[in-house]
Every structure is written in C-alpha cells, then in structure tokens.
Amino acid sequence: MTTSASEGQAAGAEAPNRRSQLKSDRRLQLLSAAERLFAERGFLAVRLEDIGAAAGVSGPAIYRHFPNKESLLVELLVGISTRLLAGARQVRARNSDASAALDGLIDFHLDFALTEPDLIRIQDRDLAYLPGAAEKQVRKAQRQYVEVWVGVLRELNPELPEADARLTAHAVFGLLNSTPHSMKSPDTSRSKGARAARSRAVMRAMTIAALEAGNQCP
C-alpha cells in the first residue's frame, strides 16, 4: 500500500500543529498553576520550580515557556486587566441606554468576581511586584475601566460630580470583589450552587442600593 503525496503532506502538516497545541496546553497549565499558587501563598513565596511541579513540568522545560516567575505574573495581571476593559467596553457598546449599560456592567463585574477570585487576590496583593512597564500598563487599563463606569453613572445623572462618580465606582468594585470571600462554605455541591445563586442576588441588590445612594447629589 502506497501513500499519496497529498496524504504525506497532510501528515507532515499535522505534526507541527500537534506540537503547537501541546505547547499551548502546557503554557496554559503553567499559568493555571501560577495563578493558584500566587493566590494561595503570595508571589514572593512561590518559586518557578514550585509552579513547574504543580503543572507537571520539570527542569529546563519550564524556561521554554516562561523565563522567570515575573513573566507569569505579567501575563496573568496584564491579561485580566485587558479582558476586563475590553468586556466593559463591549457592554457599553451593546447598550445605548445608560440604565441598561449599568445593569450590564454590574453583571459583567459580578461574573468576574465569582469566576476569578484568585486573580482578584493576586491583583490586590501582588500588583506592586510587576516590572515597571507592566505595572503602568495594568494601572492604565484599570483607570480606563473605571472611566467606563464613570461615564455611565454621569450619563444617568449629569449633575453627579466626576469625583463622586469615580468614588462610587471604586466602592462598587470593592463590594463586588469581596463576593467570593463571603461565599466560602464547606457545603455540598448542590447547596453551594443554591447558596451561590442567593449570594449573587444579594450582592447585586446591595450593589444597586450602593449605586443609588452614591448617585444622589447633595
């Protein structure tokens, strides 16, 4: 049985694709392990070797993906700040009505708080350990994210001072980002799901109440 030229070319093309996929998968495994360990122990207490061991990568193989643990921190924090900003802008673009946009922003940030508790913890605690350029990039994205909220709040209430709108936005972030900590429980999976739904509803109601209070001009 012979192999045609086209079959040989297809097989040759598949091998690099498989290698590329394996490399991508391994990189994601390292990022996931770094996220978990940084959140649990803090950036300074984690070695690159610890991350490799947690991801099942040992020795020099780690350095094929990341030169040091700082590069992992950069990818995690730059990545999440970029995604947050892009997501908020998409929410705003989809909703010409400011009230609908605010509802969308609340749900978007609440989803983030519930699904990315480790990244919130890392960002709060370890942002200062980023290299200078990366820290500036993250802080710029954070400021721009705040401004999306400020724009919506002031569109809803044009008399609201910009400084008050910004303060309100930061207060909302603090409230929503605390959500994962308030939901820790040793309950079963089923009860956890029900508790999460209740907690989400409560946190959303609290957020709306806080926004209504902050949106009042003296």
Explain what you see.
It is a single chain. By secondary structure, this protein is mostly helical. It has two domains: 15-67, Arc Repressor Mutant, subunit A (Orthogonal Bundle); 70-214, Orthogonal Bundle (Tetracycline Repressor, domain 2), CATH 1.10.357. It has nine helices and no strands. The chain has helices spanning 5-41, 48-55, 69-94, 98-115, 117-126, 132-156, 162-177, 179-182, 189-214. Helix 1 (5-41) packs across helix 3, helix 1 (5-41) crosses helix 5 (117-126) and helix 3 packs antiparallel against helix 4. The mean pLDDT is 87.
Mean pLDDT: 87
- Characterize the overall form: elongated
Largest sheet: none
What is the strand content?
A: under 5%
Determine and state the CATH class of the largest domain: Mainly Alpha
* Strand segment count: 0
**Percent of residues in helices:** over 70%
Subunit structure: Homodimer.
InterPro entries: Homeodomain-like_sf, HTH-type_TetR-like_transc_reg, HTH_TetR, KstR2_TetR_C, Tet_transcr_reg_TetR-rel_C_sf
Biased composition (Low complexity): 1-15
Keywords: DNA-binding, Transcription, Transcription regulation
